[in-house]
Amino acid sequence: MKLNLGRVFAAAGALWRAERGLIVPLAGLFYFVPTLALLLFLPAAEPVAGGGDEAALDALLAYARDNAGAILSVNFLQLAASALLLSLFLAPGRPTLAEAARLAAGRLILFVAAGLLMWGALMLGAFLILPALYLIGRFFLVTAVLAAEPRTGPVQAIARSFALTAGRGWWCFVATAIPFFAGQAATTIASGMGQAIGSAGGVALALPFDALAAAATTAGWVLTMLVKIVVYRALTKGT
Fold first, then answer.
1. Which is nearest to 110 in space by CA: 74, 162, 146?
2. Tens-digit pLDDT profile for residues 64-110
3. What DSSP string describes the chain?
């Protein structure tokens, strides 16, 4: 079927209005709070003076290595949040919250495995920007498939996503890029202001800006999940 960005985002908005009483607490507890904790307690990366790109890359790798525990923990919680939200709206029979939590917990290792496979493929394609972006579009429905089709493993979910997004790779990339870049732009502005104010006046003054940054990141994630739900339902309708 032909997908239309306007209609998809309108349907995502309608789903939000109908279910926000359920989505807001889940997003707040499992996504906003860990993100805010990362912003509050993770030390800011030190700027690199001179040395060129190689020095900047070395500094970035050192920063990631030094803070790997906190970063990976938050990423895991965010992945669990995705598994829970997608299971709640896509698992067969529209489960209750408790049932969706059990389903997500039982399949979380599959979400992790699929994430690692996709990350590895993207890293291989990172040297060629356009193929990597196209792969993001083709991977768009992997987590939706894992939540909606209980007997599907990571490799099968990737194959299924490729089948569903055939001829729609760039469309799916745009659909995921819009909420991601909008959320990241708002997050960067808010966190940058928070860092500047925090360094001048203390953590308490930076807290509202860090909260805004975490809220922007969370909003981008929620919109992405809702779009995935809408697109998966549209592409599998009647199958």
1. 146
2. 787 788 888 999 999 999 999 999 999 999 999 999 999 999 999 99
3. ----HHHHHHHHHHHHHHHHHHHHHHHIIIIIHHHHHHHHHSPPPPPP-SSHHHHHHHHHHHHHHHTHHHHHHHHHHHHHHHHHHHHHHHSTT---HHHHHHHHHHHHHHHHHHHHHHHHHHHHHTTSHHHHHHHHHHTTTHHHHHHH-TT--HHHHHHHHHHHTTT-HHHHHHHHHHHHHHHHHHHHHHHHHHHHHHHHH-HHHHHHHHHHHHHHHHHHHHHHHHHHHHHHHHHHTT-
Among 67, 66, 86, CA closest to 78: 86
pTM: 0.88
Cβ count within 10 A of residue 70 = 15
Residue ranges for the chain with pLDDT beneath 50: none
pLDDT tens for residues 42-75?
Answer: 776 665 555 555 666 666 677 778 778 888 899 9
Q: Which two tokens stand for residue 180?
A: 């991601």
